[in-house]
Amino acid sequence: MYDAAPMKILGLETSCDETGVAVYDSERGLLAQELYSQIDLHKIYGGVVPEIASRDHVRCLLPLIKKVIKNAAIESPAAVAYTAGPGLVGALMVGSGLANGLGLAWNCPVIPIHHMEGHLLAPMLEEDPPQYPFLALLVSGGHTMLVAVNGLGRYDVLGSTLDDAVGEAFDKSAKLLGLGYPGGPAIAALAEKGNPEAYSFPRPMLHRQGLDFSFSGLKTAVMLQVKKLVKEGNIDSARADIASSFQCAAVDTLVTQSIKAAKQTHLNRIVVAGGVGANLHLRQELVKRFAGRVYYPRPEFCTDNGAMIAIAGALRFSDGSEPTIINAVARWSLETLAPPGSASLHKLSIPTG
Known about the structure:
Blueprint: E1 8-13, E2 18-25, E3 29-37, H1 39-42, H2 50-72, E4 79-85, H3 89-106, E5 110-114, H4 115-121, E6 134-139, E7 144-151, E8 154-160, H5 166-176, H6 183-191, H7 216-232, H8 235-265, E9 269-273, H9 280-289, E10 293-295, H10 306-315, H11 345-349
Parallel strand pairs: 1-4, 4-5, 6-9, 9-10
Antiparallel strand pairs: 1-2, 2-3, 6-7, 7-8
Helix pairs in contact: 2-3, 4-10, 5-6, 5-7, 5-8, 6-8, 7-8, 8-9
């Protein structure tokens, strides 16, 4: 996979509410990783509080780095890769600032990584990784998009959400059902006990041209149904059916648009990544309905993690830079990236201001 000599890359992920650290060896693969989730800190608020997320990254990041470096049995990495965006700016600055400090201390390059590129490269950590080109379905709490991936840094966004991301729709629907945060796993667990055909929830955008998504209408339909059942006093017995019907509608939307995109691009490989990629019903439906091959990272690499940033850093090693610039951007288009070595990631790809 690599033309250069073997190298060990330290990856740092701090884009939201998970602190991920990993060391990836370009010859031997993943050497060590640690992941700390802030779910318990944020669930009482029903969602991520940016200031709390930033402070907890400060608390956790350096101890996790020390542990991973020790477990990987290395003195220092060849480079430090970190998530530069998109994400929560304060959380990103924690990882970016420490990555640049470590680069100065170790006298090694630092490599800013696009968070969603990390997700779409996560399946490369598996023993049977996908070959280029492929279609990527990136699904999480903050993103829902279809991307034609023709190679590293060669991305064409075919469709994205016009409003809520699918993970956000899961979280908000779970909250309506009194299931707490995070909503994705709670909805999936409850849905197993329900009837997916109990309620006819909408599948927005499926009968329109284009490959975009919309989940606000689905979320509103769930809200109206819940209010109706609460008024009638029947909500307790209907929760599982609502969860199952909602999940069925959301997954049907994702699968239908993905298959449509695959046909339009003539791609016979689909990669599913991001937190919602761990949803078992989504995996089963894609495998059942798609005629080509479907790839997933293992569940632990669906959520935000340091391993995906470390392997992205190894693949982008030639785009490393001197540790002088703290990059942290809330919004960053995947299509602005370039293949490694063809352009400076600092100068041309990361938006400023």
